[in-house]
Predict the 3D structure of the following.
Amino acid sequence: MTGDDLNTNDNDDLAEVGRALGYDEERQPPSDRVEAVRNAARQLRDERSALPHPTAPRRRRSLFAGAAAAGLGLVAGAVGRDLFVGNNPTPAPAVATEALTLTGVPAGVSAVARLINHTWGTEVLLDVRDLPPGQAYRVDLQTTTGVVGAGSFLSVADVLMVCRFNAAPLRADVRAVVVRDPSDRQVMRADLA
Amino acid sequence: MDATGPQLRRLVDEARSADPDAWEAIYRRVYPRLFAYARRRLATDTAAEDAVSETITRAMHKIQTFVWGDVGLDGWLFGIARNVVLETYRSDARSHASDPATLAEPTAEGLRAHGWPVSPADPATRLMALVEHDLIRKAFARLSDHEQELLELRVVAGLASQDVASLTGRRPGAVRMAQSRALDRLRTEYEELSR
């Protein structure tokens, strides 16, 4: 804690408040997440060294969600190239894709999503594993004019499900991609700019 | 967050070249504070850890845009973390524990519910700490959202008033005064609850 402006009593009290609110200066991150961070840095460094303009700004975003519980490595998203789920590389698509940031991914589930902006509509690429098996999940697009179904998939145990969903709304009109379970509850979503 | 200025600048320089050691050091450096901040707003330890991981991932891909200014590295990372937590919070209301006083219920056998320091003290001392911290959390919950955030930015995020000022768009002097007032109010609420 900084002590730049309050007196000693104030700082003692503030430290106690911090502890009461859950701050533990000795807390260490889980080792698998540390390794995931190191892997992500290595991957980024390797990508930069392979790029013709290594200092060019990047739009890439990625998410570790659920990686620890699933026993997988880094789940990383990329714009148009090299996505990995654990040790299962997904071949780089031939067309430009937009990496999506999934939120709300249940613990133990690994998921990576991308999107393709087609002239005829929007295609969602979803790689997911370790959802509760035997259930049908629905993928919806939330658009400026309402919700449009993009398709569904049946979850299977211990398999990386590589799913593709197509729908008519144009990318510019899509606001979110939402995955719902059979009870219509949201399982995960990606909000789009 | 104890690295000196030159050390920190060297760490950032190494991080800009995606050095794994540098990113591990940054991750370990900010983890306790970012975790505590995220954990107070998200329902599970896993969700909070995900938020911290996501913060580091975003930072990794944005570090080229980081410039030393009013907000240092910690403030910059905390700004990213705020957005990550807010996005998670908005995307899934079920993960939001609305009553901060319920977030850190102590376990029966120890003090660590989430991020809770395990004290080496004797059971009586630990029980007193439990009771006192419970009162503090209840008193804290009585503060306004604004007061809570100002104190949290200080005691949980560990940010100096200059950083808080930059993040909240206020002047450092105004932040110091507001934090002092919020602390006074917290003391008053705590004393009232202690009676």
